[in-house]
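Lab notes, practical 5.
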Amino acid sequence: MDTAVVELEQARLGRARKVAESGDLTQVLAGQVLGSRIDTTVSEALVLGLLAQDVRTFFCVFGHGSTEVGEVLRIYQAVGLLRVCAVRNEIEASHAAMALRWVTGEKAAVVTSIGPGALQALAASIAPRSDGVGVWYLLGDETTEDEGPNMQQIPGSEQSVFLRLFGAMGGAYLLHTPLALATALRRGLNTVDHPHRAGPFFLLLPLNIQPAELAQFNLAELPSGAPPALGPAADEGVYATVVAAIAAAERVVVKVGGGARACGAELVDFLELADAVAVTSPLVSGVIPYDHPRNMTVGGSKGSLCGNYAMESADLLVVVGSRSVCQADSSRTGYPLVERVVNINADPEDAMHYNKTTALVGDSSRTLGKLNRVLRARRQQDIVGSSAWLKACCDKKREWSAFKAMRYQSPVLYDEVWDSEVLTQPAAIKLATDWARAQDAVCFFDAGDVQANGFQVVEDDRLGRTFTETGASYMGFAVSALLATAVAAEPFYGLAISGDGSFVMNPQVLIDGVEQGATGCMLILDNRRMGAITGLQLAQYGAECGTRNPVEIDYLAWAGAVEGVATFRGGYSPETLVEALDRAGAYAGLSLVHLPVYFGLDERGGLGAFGRWNVGNWCADTQAMRHEIGL
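Output from the prediction step:
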């Protein structure tokens, strides 16, 4: 090996050992461990900068565009400062990094090569972008000296094409100049740790910049410290206006979005003070306990009877931290009787989404707390007892509970594909989520029917039991998320509930989960199709096309071919499914339970849809209604 390479390795190893021994990155940045200035490279300074931001987990698919970064990660992992998780797909890496941050708050970075790998990570980044989860992406890029086309770059003579492409998805920085590293790290920190709208940050690392020397680099330049949260919305008479609007309304509904994750206590107070009911996003299942009498659960195009009743009947809408996505508000037709809107949001664009809006722009929790204090001071007394509005909504919630109970009372139906009675998805999901709650396991839901039935079924008593990636509805998210169990500082058990269509999108977790030490179970609900889309096709056009899987797959044999994965048959009854889950939960590693499930026209096979959606041949009627409402 070249002498210079050996000397560089030893120098890096010496610095890494000193940093590990100190255990305090604050002292490192202050020059108390390595001195204030060091001779280093861009890649090593990058890793030090990320460690200073407490990024210690790196999900990696290395290639020729990331060997230099990989070498630094190897050395720093050797002394225990970080963990390299080599996986087999960049989409899987992104989902795992997102899940780790979402469930535990721990930061992670995704490392890819140039070209196809980076583009796969870009595709997957729509999930953290949509759901507001901060993830670092370290991506190889073409060299800066333009010696000719680089292999795997986007062909053409334009400069910075990757920068333009990745910049459309979130924050992005092309490290064209080595000493701009500190600025790049600050931009990334401000994005992934944004207190109200975190998201992905893409650091594009040209191949020739990664090993570039940084002579006497000033460690004090490496940034730390996240941007502060906003305070409550400014007053200027707005709070009084909101109180007056609440007093004048008869039927107040509160739409609770992903930006209200930290607002549980304030929301409960507000619901009582305003005599309001809540309709929640799947992203915040449990922010208000399901059993709370004012929680009408999910609403929208795939909502609940009670959630959609509250939306359809309300005359005042209070939005807290929601983007008002099409499915959440039935493509802007969900509130046909609403005359006024109060929108509490940290983002002015989201706050002004609807017409007739009084906007309170600020931190949702602090703003709601201040509004509660104003309400208490200006109202003669708090709401006591049951108003007509609350009673009507509670009646609908009881109807919803009875509706679900009827589905659970018919847990199996005959299915032609399986030529047998098999469990329905509502029954299977109810059994699985009850089992997970008893085990204190974290549930991840994949996209499609599994996801939609899932957020109608779950009855969470607190945040953190269920993670449903509804922002992008990315197939394969749930099973990939199980990798987070292998790296979390506080271990947890994960149950990934996935349809057969979603599972085959990211089966790499079978291998990577074993290699990295994941602890969890993949419950595959197999109806041999993309059931959500087949159902949509049948509802709209009376025929299906291209969504059925005629190829029989033995998922147990597939998973069993990977040493270390335990496999179990879910069977055809509630008892056999619970028995399989018990056996999976007792296994110290990664397991897969295969469960045939029903698909067909029998209404007992699903939980139904009670809202509108601007898709397919429903568009004309939905759009006409939206413009008639004018909200």
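Observations recorded by the TA: The longest helix spans residues 388-409. The longest strand covers residues 135-141.
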